[in-house]
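Researcher: Let's run the pair from yesterday's discussion. Sequence first, then tokens, for each.
Model: Starting with the first of the pair.
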Amino acid sequence: MLGRPSAMASGKVPAKGGAAVERFLAKLKATPARGASPGKPGRLLFAMDATASRKPSWDQACQIQGEMFLVTQDLGGLEVQLCYYRGFFEFEATRWLASSAELVRRMAGVDCRGGQTQIGRALRHAVDESKAGRVDAFVFVGDSFEEELDTVCRIAGEMGLLGLPAFMFHEGADQAAERAFREIARLSGGAYCAFDAASAGQLRELLSAVAVYAAGGRAALEDYGRKTGGLARRLSHRRS
């Protein structure tokens, strides 16, 4: 999926991608935030599809994860839990990590393997983690959906009741995945965004924006947009 020239190299977002980003940023800014407890880092559960088709993008994601930690340092920091599925019903979740180096080390040790999606299982894990302790946001990155949609949507609805938004990042153009991801985002109170695998810079900025939201809520998100510019700057021009 990688290899074609990226429009991000010139600092421009393709028209279609730009519209998707605009909608995502608007939804992110409007999402009610739990906000981290005073003196405690924000918590973001980061779920990824580690099936065979995801290998190029997994390697790409390893290179951009540190950004999420850097942009939240002044907000009290960030804890990230990585969970992923692959192969024949394999599902793994790390402990909560407070170091970008540790997260990257864990990701680098994962081999992508063929298998079907287990997005419902990832969402169920997020619900369980939220009930056991605070989780401020759930992020998923994947390219396909091969499950029973109604069953998965029930779990997404539980997330909505818990105040745990799912931010669904969709690589590629699979229509079944788009329908499912949009519905998961809607029911959980989160947001959907499609992205091009060649646009690493775009994904980096969007994940950083979600990390800031998880660590500091809407006010921190707007401040981050004003300070950094780029895609995130559009947040500061949105009405609540």
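Model: Moving on to the second of the pair.
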Amino acid sequence: MKIIRDYQFVAPEDRGASAAIGNFDGVHLGHQAVIDIARAAAPDAPLGILTFEPHPRQYFAPTAPAFRLMGAAARASRLEKLGVKRLYELNFTAALAALTPEAFAQDVIADGFGLRHVVVGADFCFGKGRAGTAEHLQDFGIRMGFGVTVTPLVAHAERTVSSTAIRQALSDGDPRTAAEMLGHWHRIEGPVISGEQRGRELGYPTANMSIDGLHPPAFGVYAVLVDVREGTHQGSYHGVASLGVRPMFGENRPNLETYIFDFKGDLYGTALSVGLVDHLRGEENFDSLDALITQMDADSLEARRILAAL
């Protein structure tokens, strides 16, 4: 997959794609439906995605609570697995935000990327002040020479599949409902960072990962699936993870600490992907380290039981 970030300097071979447009946070079932339609709309064209980085919501409200389900690298990885060949990841700047809907259609879609066909959801809005609608885009496509397909919103279990609904399920400690809407386990991805090695001292060495910039799922302990993406330990594993602020040990920045079952090795700096399967319990403050270890033993047994049944 090739990533193109500037619509003003596009190589000829990167033009002419059939592209789905949107933020694609989580790459959920609704997004996947839009991508499938883009693929079918022009089978002989490269399959593309037109998206934005940072997310426009981050740009307009930089101090608001973190809301993203995945970072840019995780999104790109997921899109590549779906067969996307051209990722048009536009730098979302003041200049881009100021484009009127018509200017965006002309300068970015038609003249810049030369897209052959675009696919958007029924709730798609674009241009300055989000003034452009899917219907406006269809009108621009007729005038400017690109095809437009508008897809209905996807529903699951009588609810509309959306990033908002997925965030709510995760906040409720319900990763399985989130996974049903995503079409995959919700994953936290990134490098293993240095921790305070308390887990090692307790007999549970953990791989620590930052959740900065991401929507925080319910704090507590999870049964997890772990993919080590690189290095000598590359592969898939089962584990149990604690997500939160570790209240027994003072004030701490939220992070994810994963204990990988039956694993020995150094993972510092290694890229991990941790899929949340079940929320076992909330975060607790124990009276003693012995009580904590006893609970960790029970958590591990329960996680092994759950993951063995997948």
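Researcher: Give me one sentence on the second I can quote.
Model: The longest helix spans residues 289-308.
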